Amino acid sequence: MSATANLHDLRQFVLSRLLPAESLLARGGEGARQCLAQLTEAAKATGLWGAYHPTGSAHGPALATYLPHAEWEGYSEFGPALFGADVALDAHMLQRHASPVVRDRYLSALLRGDLVASYGMSEPDAIGSIPATLQACARYADGQWTISGRKWFICRAAQAGLVTVVARTEAAGVATGALSMIVVPTDVPGFRLERPLDILGGQLGQAEMTFDKVVVPADFVLGLPGQGRALMQERLALGRMLRSAHWLGLTQRCYDLLCARITSPRGELARLADKQLIRRHVYEVHAAQVAARALWQQAAQGLDAGQPDEVAINLAKLTASKALCLAADTAIQIYGAEGLSDALTPLAGIYRHARASRILDGTDEALINACGRRLLARQQARQAPQHEPASTIF
């Protein structure tokens, strides 16, 4: 399905089928899993599955045209999983960089929704923004990779049948300490799911896992051995864009909720719409949302043109995160105590996502620092004196 699919159908599905099921989905357990599976099958049957899945080409549909669809997928915190958006990033990476063996074995299952994938980069004893501190290692010998290490705060870990592991490579012909990405099925000996990790008291699918001398074939590496850093940058760029597009959907949800509260009978009783501070809240959330959308589109156009701009991508992620945090916090403030209860509104769950957005896929500080460094370098390049060639006297 293309990103230009009928948004009316998607909107109706979200409003009439997904939102009424949110309270059940939020409780977790077998009932929630069955409900999500039923909704997923219904989404597939109505052509609403996989809007940004890769197609026959290496890069798939245009990212810039995906935003309206992504926002409706992200209007509920359960939407990205239901509509197949959660697997899009791993599917693109396999399409572009996996060996024919790995693509043939796993890509179709991933795109059908029969397989869940996760990405193992973060480690308990490493600094997330400094790849040089990663300690998981992969040794190559006799046509096989042997992988050992620990990873944590891994999304979708409990359901994953496949993990792309970032490991320090030890192989002939590869620089010592170079990183590689290696695909690991979770049913191999030595893989162990250790424990779930909550996010602000809620379960968002994060977990810790270990690899104890896990063995996979040589062609399970993505790209070439030692290309891990470049692939990490590529994955982070697209991943930040996809996540932030869904965050903009959650931002719109919070904006709709706070406006609905202001104009509700209780809001009218309190004359909320007449209060200047309330109007300022509405303005600030709206302005943050509009700015984040514009910056996202600018970054998406660069990626679609094959010219990804690190500053534009980081700005898109940072401003989408900031807009979501502001919208969730403001909506909770407008609702008062009701906004703090999972039993009464979806805002507490959205707030957990919002706060996590400042850490996932790069902390605010790391991205702001990278933007500042790059912007200063660009400015210095512009200001460098342009020496004219010396005149030649004949």
Q: Could you characterize the architecture of this molecule?
A:
This protein is an alpha/beta fold. The chain has 3 domains: 7-98, Butyryl-Coa Dehydrogenase, subunit A, domain 1; 117-222, Butyryl-CoA Dehydrogenase, subunit A, domain 2, CATH 2.40.110; 229-381, Butyryl-CoA Dehydrogenase, subunit A, domain 3 (Up-down Bundle), CATH 1.20.140.10. The chain has helices at residues 7-27, 29-45, 67-73, 79-82, 88-97, 100-112, 228-262, 265-269, 276-304, 310-335, 347-356, 364-383; strands at 117-120, 137-141, 144-154, 162-170, 179-185, 191-196, 207-217. Strands 1, 2, 3, 4, 5, 6 and 7 form a 7-stranded mixed sheet that branches. Helix 1 (7-27) packs antiparallel against helix 2 (29-45) and helix 1 packs parallel to helix 3. The protein is globular, with a radius of gyration of 23 Å. The model is unreliable at 1-5 and 390-394 (pLDDT under 50). Residues 119-214 form the Acyl-CoA oxidase/dehydrogenase middle domain. It comes from Parachitinimonas caeni.
